[in-house]
TrEMBL record:
It catalyses: a primary alcohol + NAD(+) = an aldehyde + NADH + H(+); a secondary alcohol + NAD(+) = a ketone + NADH + H(+). One of its GO terms (cellular component) is cytosol. Gene3D superfamilies: Medium-chain alcohol dehydrogenases, catalytic domain, NAD(P)-binding Rossmann-like Domain. Keywords: Metal-binding, NAD, Oxidoreductase, Zinc. It holds the Pfam family ADH_zinc_N. One of its GO terms (molecular function) is S-(hydroxymethyl)glutathione dehydrogenase [NAD(P)+] activity. Residues 218-337 form the Alcohol dehydrogenase-like C-terminal domain. It comes from Hibiscus syriacus. This is alcohol dehydrogenase.
């Protein structure tokens, strides 16, 4: 075994050897994750091996764990896609990332060379975009994870962060400032970037405007934080869980609606509160009927609805074509419109400077071996982000 180096977080550098470490493995839909030894192969060409120091759980992980989407049923699998860590080693051809760099893995990659990456109108990537069907590495169609007997363990959303070490395509690794607090930066892998970016990059919320947010999980509250920073004058939060309202006030939500308390549709209530509807609405619940209410809650003539929720159902949008002739628009948003490798480092700097308050999103902290407890907190609606330290 080659000599090892140690940094302040205890990550080890083992040259290009296979590493044996702990990971939380999903063996079947809804089954408790199993903390076990796994083997993590060395990174191949244009790949990076990362020592994960902090990871958290979002509803996409929860949905995959439950097996809600047929495309996400590859087992055994290492889930997780929100994390931060330190580069342990890099494969051939990687030039922008070095051993020892502080990084965050991202599920929506940026190769820099495809037609989408070269187009400023989109943050999609033809090679490394989010793809729930993908469960192996692009290089050779194989996994970098295996059990002690050599059986493959599949990847998840380009990242697989529920492991002490993971191998990620370099297009899905973002280098951040060496002084960045990694426990907070992990939030930028998904939830905070997705929500704030939807407000900033996709909707381009303007000062003095009105906003309605449907679903006050971490993504919805991140939308609120982004709208607050942009100077929105009215931010309406819609959720059936009233415990979310206190946290909502901390990120700038001015009004709250619990649909279960209403005798009229939500869009009618919002229309009465805003002289005809809000300028922007954001659907963060992954529910088609909620999407319809969000769409109708915007003002005719210019209202914009941004779709962020994950909809695993094959059902189509509940909109009549003629409703699109009233001037309302609807658009989908992936990763908040951020081009990860080129735009996320600056966003991280803004967070470090206090532009946004990331502390509000971390509601619980647990050691990694209590990951099943962290999942239950999310299932019970008691947590936004439970930070797991590896």
């Amino acid at each position: 075994m080659d000599a090892v180096d140690h940094n302040s977080f205890g990550a080890t550098v083992t040259a290009d050897k296979t590493i044996t470490c702990k990971a939380a493995v999903a063996w079947g839909p809804g089954e408790p994750l199993v903390i076990q030894d796994v083997r993590v192969a060395a990174p191949q060409k244009m790949e990076v091996r990362i020592k994960i120091l902090f990871t958290s759980i979002c509803h996409t992980d929860l949905g995959a764990w439950k097996g809600e989407n047929e495309a996400q049923r590859a087992y055994p699998r290492i889930l997780g896609h929100e994390a931060a860590g330190i580069v342990e080693s890099v494969g051939e051809g990687v030039e922008d990332i070095r051993k020892g760099d502080r990084v965050i893995p991202i599920f929506q990659g940026e190769c820099g060379n495809c037609s989408c990456c070269k187009n400023q109108k989109t943050n999609l990537c033809l090679k490394f975009g989010v793809n729930p069907l993908k469960s192996v590495m692009l290089n050779d169609g194989k996994t970098r994870f295996s059990t002690k007997d050599g059986s493959p363990i599949f990847h998840f959303l380009n990242t697989s962060t529920f492991s002490e070490y993971t191998v990620v395509d370099s297009a899905c690794v973002v280098k951040i400032d060496s002084d960045a607090p990694l426990e907070k930066m992990s939030l930028l892998s998904c939830g905070v970037s997705t929500g704030v970016g939807a407000a900033w990059n996709v909707a381009d919320v303007q000062p003095g405007s009105s906003v309605a947010i449907f679903g006050l999980g971490a993504v919805g509250l991140a939308v609120a934080e982004g709208a607050r920073v942009r100077g929105a004058s009215k931010i309406i939060g819609v959720d059936i869980n009233p415990t979310k309202f206190a946290k909502g006030r901390a990120v700038g939500i001015t009004d709250f609606i619990n649909p279960e308390d209403l005798e009229v549709p939500v869009h009618e209530k919002i229309g009465g509160m805003t002289e005809g509807g809000v300028d922007y609405s954001f659907e963060c619940a992954g529910n088609l009927q909620v999407l319809r209410e969000a769409f109708l809650s915007t003002h005719m003539g210019w209202g914009l609805t941004v779709l962020l929720g994950i909809h695993p159902s094959p059902m189509l949008l509940p909109l009549h074509p003629m409703e699109m002739f009233n001037g309302r628009q609807i658009i989908g948003s992936v990763f908040g419109g951020f081009k990860g490798k080129t735009q996320l480092p600056r966003f991280a700097q803004q967070c470090m400077c206090g532009t946004l308050n990331l502390d509000e999103f971390i509601t619980h902290e647990l050691p990694f071996d209590q990951i099943n407890k962290a999942f239950q907190l999310l299932v019970d609606g008691k947590s936004l982000r439970c930070l797991l330290q590896l």
